[in-house]
Automatic annotation (TrEMBL):
Signal peptide interval: none
Subcellular location: Nucleus
All copies of domain Timeless N-terminal, residue ranges: 12-152
The keyword Protein biosynthesis is annotated on this UniProt entry: no
Protein name: TIM protein
Taxonomic superkingdom: Eukaryota
GO cellular component assignments: replication fork protection complex
InterPro entries xref list: Timeless, Timeless_N
GO molecular function: DNA binding
A biological-process GO annotation: DNA replication checkpoint signaling
Length: 193
C-alpha cells in the first residue's frame, strides 16, 4: 500500500510514479485523517480512569504499524511537499485531546520534575541574593563624594605672596611640586644634554 508506493529505490522512480500510486497515497492519508477526525463519544467510552481511550488506541495502532514514521517522512521530504497539508491535519488530529503542558511533562518524566525543582530552588536563591544586594545598597550612603578637600600649605608661597592652596588628597602631598599638573616642556633633541 502506502509503504510500497513511498519506498522507491532510486530518484528516477519518484518521477515515474504512477498516477494510481499518487491516488492511493492520497486515499490512505484521507482515510487516516477521517478515522482520527471521529469525535469521542462519552457514552460509549465508559472505561476505568486511566484506561486508554479509543483515540489513544488508534494512535497506538498507527505507531505499531509504522504509520507515524511514514508521516514524519512525508512531512520532511522535499519531494513530498504536495502531502504537507494532509500530514499537518493528521498530526493536529493526533494531538487533539492533549494538553501541551502535560505532553511536555510526560516527555521529561521524573528528570523533568527534578529539573523543575532545581529551577525553583535557583530562582529562590536568586531572589534572596537580590534582596541582600538591595539591603546593602540601602545601608551605604547613596552618593559618593568625589571632593577630596582643599588644603592651604603654610610656608609655601604662590603667586602674589599668598599661601599655596592644594586641591589633591593629603596622601599625594609628599610628591607635591610647583610643576604639578603642568605639561612638561619638550626640549629638542639637539639641545638635550
Amino acid at each position: 500500500g502506502l509503504q510500497g508506493a513511498l519506498t522507491a529505490p532510486s530518484p528516477q522512480d519518484w518521477e515515474q510514479r504512477q498516477e494510481e500510486d499518487t491516488l492511493l497515497i492520497e486515499r490512505i492519508l484521507l482515510l487516516v485523517r477521517n478515522v482520527l477526525h471521529v469525535p469521542p463519544d462519552p457514552t460509549e467510552e465508559q472505561g476505568v480512569d486511566g484506561d486508554a481511550s479509543i483515540h489513544d488506541r488508534v494512535l497506538w495502532a498507527l505507531h505499531i504499524s509504522g504509520m507515524d514514521d511514514l508521516l514524519k517522512f512525508l512531512a520532511s521530504a522535499q519531494v513530498e511537499q504536495q502531502w504537507a497539508l494532509h500530514v499537518l491535519e493528521i498530526i493536529s488530529l493526533m494531538f487533539r485531546d492533549q494538553n501541551p503542558e502535560e505532553l511536555a511533562a510526560l516527555g521529561q518524566g521524573p528528570a523533568g520534575a527534578e529539573h523543575g525543582e532545581d529551577t525553583r530552588e535557583l530562582e529562590s536563591l536568586r531572589q534572596r541574593e537580590l534582596a541582600e544586594k538591595r539591603a546593602r545598597a540601602l545601608q551605604r550612603p547613596s552618593r559618593h563624594s568625589r571632593f577630596g578637600g582643599s588644603y592651604v600649605l603654610r610656608g609655601l608661597k604662590s603667586i602674589g605672596d599668598r599661601d599655596v592652596v592644594f586641591h589633591k588628597g593629603l596622601h599625594s602631598l609628599k610628591s607635591y611640586s610647583h610643576d604639578l599638573g603642568k605639561e612638561p616642556r619638550r626640549v629638542p633633541r639637539r639641545r638635550q644634554a
